[in-house]
Amino acid sequence: xxxxxxxxxxxxxxxxxxxxxxxxxxxxxxxxxxxxxxxxxxxxxxxxxxxxxxxxxxxxxxxxxxxxxxxxxxxxxxxxxxxxxxxxxxxxxxxxxxxxxxxxxxxxxxxxxxxxxxxxxxxxxxxxxxxxxxxxxxxxxxxxxxxxxxxxxxxxxxxxxxxxxxxxxxxxxxxxxxxxxxxxxxxxxxxxxxxxxxxxxxxxxxxxxxxxxxxxxxxxxxxxxxxxxxxxxxxxxxxxxxxxxxxxxxxxxxxxxxxxxxxxxxxxxxxxxxxxxxxxxxxxxxxxxxxxxxxxxxxxxxxxxxxxxxxxxxxxxxxxxxxxxxxxxxxxxxxxxxxxxxxxxxxxxxxxxxxxxxxxxxxxxxxxxxxxxxxxxxxxxxxxxxxxxxxxxxxxxxxxxxxxxxxxxxxxxxxxxxxxxxxxxxxxxxxxxxxxxxxxxxxxxxxxxxxxxxxxx
Amino acid sequence: xxxxxxxxxxxxxxxxxxxxxxxxxxxxxxxxxxxxxxxxxxxxxxxxxxxxxxxxxxxxxxxxxxxxxxxxxxxxxxxxxxxxxxxxxxxxxxxxxxxxxxxxxxxxxxxxxxxxxxxxxxxxxxxxxxxxxxxxxxxxxxxxxxxxxxxxxxxxxxxxxxxxxxxxxxxxxxxxxxxxxxxxxxxxxxxxxxxxxxxxxxxxxxxxxxxxxxxxxxxxxxxxxxxxxxxxxxxxxxxxxxxxxxxxxxxxx
Lengths: 457, 253
Ligand SMILES: Cc1cc2nc3c(=O)[nH]c(=O)nc-3n(C[C@H](O)[C@H](O)[C@H](O)COP(=O)(O)OP(=O)(O)OC[C@H]3O[C@@H](n4cnc5c(N)ncnc54)[C@H](O)[C@@H]3O)c2cc1C
Ligand SMILES: NC(=O)c1ccc[n+]([C@@H]2O[C@H](COP(=O)([O-])OP(=O)(O)OC[C@H]3O[C@@H](n4cnc5c(N)ncnc54)[C@H](OP(=O)(O)O)[C@@H]3O)[C@@H](O)[C@H]2O)c1
Known about the structure:
The structure holds two protein chains of two kinds.
Chain A: E1 8-12, E2 21-28, H1 33-36, E3 45-48, E4 64-68, E5 76-78, E6 83-87, H2 92-99, E7 104-105, H3 117-122, H4 130-133, E8 140-146, E9 152-155, H5 161-167, E10 176-183, E11 185-186, E12 191-199, H6 202-212, E13 218-223, E14 235-242, H7 250-253, E15 265-266, H8 279-292, E16 296-303, H9 304-308, E17 314-315, E18 326-333, H10 338-350, E19 358-363, E20 377-385, H11 391-404, E21 408-409, H12 419-425, H13 429-439, H14 448-453
Parallel strand pairs in A: 2-4, 3-4, 15-17
Antiparallel strand pairs in A: 1-2, 5-6, 6-10, 7-11, 8-9, 8-10, 12-14, 12-16, 13-14, 13-19, 18-20, 18-21, 19-20
Helix pairs in contact in A: 10-11
Chain B: E1 10-14, H1 19-28, E2 35-40, H2 43-53, E3 59-64, H3 73-84, E4 89-92, H4 107-135, E5 139-143, H5 156-177, E6 182-188, H6 208-220, E7 225-228, H7 232-240, H8 244-249
Parallel strand pairs in B: 1-2, 1-4, 2-3, 4-5, 5-6, 6-7
Helix pairs in contact in B: 1-6, 3-4, 4-5
NADP nicotinamide-adenine-dinucleotide phosphate is lined by residues 15, 17-21, 40-42, 45, 65-68, 93-96, 116, 143, 145, 188, 190-191, 193-196 of chain B.
């Protein structure tokens, strides 16, 4: 087969640039995927999106890795139904450029637009709107899924529901998502209105989010990790919604759906031996950033890029963490376990393990997918350089706090937890494995993460 | 799989009762470690070592293995991989020291030391290399020795086997690097262990724990060679070029 002559051996890592491994990588069009499975050896096959998962989810050491080609021009928009059908290899960046000018937005976007549709579903990504509208899977109407035997299954919440929900958040281990149909959100403008509030400590953040989140479509708190003692958890709470036409300035109203996000700078692909992200630079950054935030400001109009994807303005920012890379520690604990969030933040500040970015969010109810990460409660995401001293002991300690509080870790961010931690955090893991086995009895789909965590045993 | 913090899940120790090997295993252990395999010729002794490592969530498997039967090594290694999945770190620690100068005159002992330390060790590296090459990740730690850096009359057979092993490991390591596999050659000086019990300590004598710390640091940094103590690298740089008559009279223990 022609495509297989294009197979190239590549070293792959996740966005955190840790645990690199080697695989045979090939770009394929949707109609070539079934044939490509013929080249699978004992180490199996995995589909990779844009590699924005942080750990080893999108790697398959010694095996075959497929990257799906696809363009948003192939997407089919049904304006009457408010749905769109998109090839899974299309990036959110590409898709937004196509749909925003037509007055549509995606139901969920993560903090970067450089993810594929397939990746968004396989991780069942969530955004700032989870408390009201759930994760990506909640909005999917149907999927075309290529199975290990080369057949294509058309699955939906009411059609092969088991397989559908096993694929939502299923980390590419049930099959290759070829296309997805999901509901869109109509928007009048491409701007957001944002209310920003500076909050002095963790209790104030919990209280403000409990009271006010229901009034906002989107809500997230950026925690200043420098705050300790009585300042622990001081935050900037940003909440908003899509702006209506009336909320735009006359100048903005002339082109209310304008959308053209730019990458302002891209870091060269140099490997910095020592990261530039260390305690000093982080403290300085956060101090300036927290002070800069207004005590309270309402109705500020922001672009989609500023509100949703600020990090995308600097390409390759993950390289700033140096040769050892970084981990993003993200977990959720149920309501009533606020103490666990506090304990984690205390450990981080005590250990001197400052973090560049810490984000706190209130999740609404989860969906029926057994491996979907979100569940009702608080989620905290913290970026940490692997180079900090004692990182392993620190994270193993945090794992215990999270699991003891009945919480769990987000697979797409994970690079370090254990099979036991995942089994404890995801009580429906066995149910998911059983569904998986029915469609993959020979173990075609494998990833470094699935081997590390025993997901495909 | 090693995790993002460079913690291995699966560790195999060839020479499962070696003091240095066990010290490296202990240094590598973390809540992430799932399996340790101790491959030993004396499994009863191996069980004692295993008991010292066992704890919740960790499987310690004692496997019968003889360095002197190279033809069995691939099967042993494949069997371990079949039982436990991907192997993250394989440590080659077994060796015989022999009886110093006497070994150079004792045909049987000379052949045995050469056979175990070189032929056996080469077979073990081939076996481990084949498994790791297929999975395209993982590390091999080889216990070489400064004794191989410049072979002395006092332990010529042992020193020569280490020189040969060190060379093979480096060459194989270069080849395996293309497959994402990491080879670390560790060159300790005199280490106080079962092997050197009763022998007078040489200059720069060190401990199994110090070797382990340096080896694990080398693993995390993906270094190719590590000397323990580190100073020996420079000492031997000089010794390599010391004229023969001087070299032979040096008090090296
Ligand atoms: C800066 C940044 C911010 C982020 N913010 C958020 C956030 O706010 N919320 C959130 O939920 N996540 C967030 N993420 C994580 C990111 O959204 C997910 O990791 C997402 O899955 C990445 O998509 P990808 O296309 O890069 O997939 P990859 O990382 O390449 O792959 C991720 C998984 O998806 C599977 N997969 C990919 N394509 C397919 C397919 N076609 N069929 C089946 N399986 C497939 C892969 O096998 C793998 O298991 C963020 C990541 C970054 C770097
Ligand atoms: N100690 C030093 O000064 C020093 C210095 C430099 C390098 N080294 C190297 O470091 C490594 C470990 O040595 P150590 O100090 O830890 O000594 P050790 O405790 O004596 O370990 C040597 C190991 O080799 C095993 N062994 C010997 N013959 C074997 C065979 N045929 N099959 C399987 N296993 C066999 C021994 O098993 P039994 O327990 O059954 O005997 C023992 O476990 C060796 O390669 C050694 O050459 C040691």
